[in-house]
Amino acid sequence: xxxxxxxxxxxxxxxxxxxxxxxxxxxxxxxxxxxxxxxxxxxxxxxxxxxxxxxxxxxxxxxxxxxxxxxxxxxxxxxxxxxxxxxxxxxxxxxxxxxxxxxxxxxxxxxxxxxxxxxxxxxxxxxxxxxxxxxxxxxxxxxxxxxxxxxxxxxxxxxxxxxxxxxxxxxxxxxxxxxxxxxxxxxxxxxx
Length: 192
What we know:
This protein has 192 residues and is α/β, with parallel strands linked by helices.
């Protein structure tokens, strides 16, 4: 079972931008699950989970937030805000043309889900949050700051990228070698 890549347009103050999402399972499924990644990640992190839900008849949508994965970039660096992500996800929900969705949000994806679920008449039926809450420890913020402020790493090959991913994402837990390789393959660009 492989996902289908689809694209749509989002709108910011700087103009239109391309957004991508990966769709699993039957488009006509009774239930739709939206899985949204964290600040520094991308949609393919959810492949294992998406495949499992799709096998049970769900339609699963895994978007790449703007500036990540297969999505485009915003014209203005300061435009990467919760409001922009919320607007982009609202456009995605409209494109899906469903009455309601269940939402799994990891970190930033959880914040976006909370923001959308809190709105009157929200289409979010159930919300599952991972790695986000009302308090973010200072150590976690410092670790993220170091990671985000470092120059983008370059790798000699995929093995070096996988080693970096294993080290940087060690808090993800005990993953199989195949899963680490999968994360590495979808987290780096072949142009270095």
